[in-house]
Design goal:
Layout (H helix, E strand, L loop, with lengths): L1 H5 L3 E4 L2 E4 L2 E5 L2 E5 L15 E5 L3 E5 L4 E5 H8 L3 E3 H48 L5 H24 L6 H19 L1
Parallel strand pairs: 4-5
Antiparallel strand pairs: 1-2, 1-8, 3-4, 5-6, 6-7
Helix pairs in contact: 3-4, 3-5, 4-5
Length: 187
């Protein structure tokens, strides 16, 4: 829907953009599509960043520097001679598939890392149990390790929402302290 609403019909052929002039200004960012003129970095004055699609090139400004990319170079790098609005939808489906694969891999990595963290904590619990002469078996220590891991994960997630991150060492100390007191209490 965003593509249909904000992007005018366009075609890039022979290194030239043909499109109506469209300006999307959202506070500190701007997007200018202008198939009639050649633009420069001066069009970014008053904004922190933006993108300009002019007649011959794309200008990307990240607030520090501007990068120019010609349509000939861009289309040559993806191996096409002509690109138009309808082609965006063809590439969008491929991007969605890549995003889904990336999402599955990321979730799998998070689950695996949590599993290894719990196994590591259960091994630490064995040592603490031996030190405290707690008399707990490995199954009970594993369950305690899962419970011990939960508050640290929740606290880390809540603080990261507010832009405050806990250091790795702090999380390890928190886990080990909670594990120590849990095993001591079960004793």
């Amino acid at each position: 829907g965003i593509i249909n609403e904000f992007i005018p019909d366009f075609i890039i052929e022979n290194g030239t953009l043909q499109a109506e002039t469209t300006v999307i200004n959202e506070g500190n960012s701007i997007v200018i599509i202008d198939g009639n003129n050649e633009r420069s970095e001066f069009d970014f004055q008053g904004v922190e960043n933006g993108v300009i699609f002019d007649k011959k090139k794309i200008i990307v400004n990240n607030g520090i520097e501007s990068t120019h990319i010609s349509y000939n170079d861009l289309l040559g790098s993806i191996g096409v001679d002509k690109f138009e609005k309808s082609d965006i939808f063809n590439y969008t489906s491929e991007i969605n598939i890549l995003f889904a694969v990336f999402f599955v891999i990321t979730i799998s990595a998070l689950i695996t890392s949590e599993a290894f963290g719990i196994i590591f904590l259960s091994l630490c619990a064995l040592v603490i149990n031996k030190f405290l002469k707690g008399g707990l078996n490995y199954n009970e220590l594993f369950k305690i390790s899962v419970y011990v891991r939960t508050p640290a994960v929740v606290l880390t997630a809540l603080l990261s929402l507010f832009g405050m991150g806990l250091g790795f060492i702090f999380v390890v100390i928190l886990n080990l302290a909670y594990l120590f007191f849990s095993v001591k209490k079960c004793k």
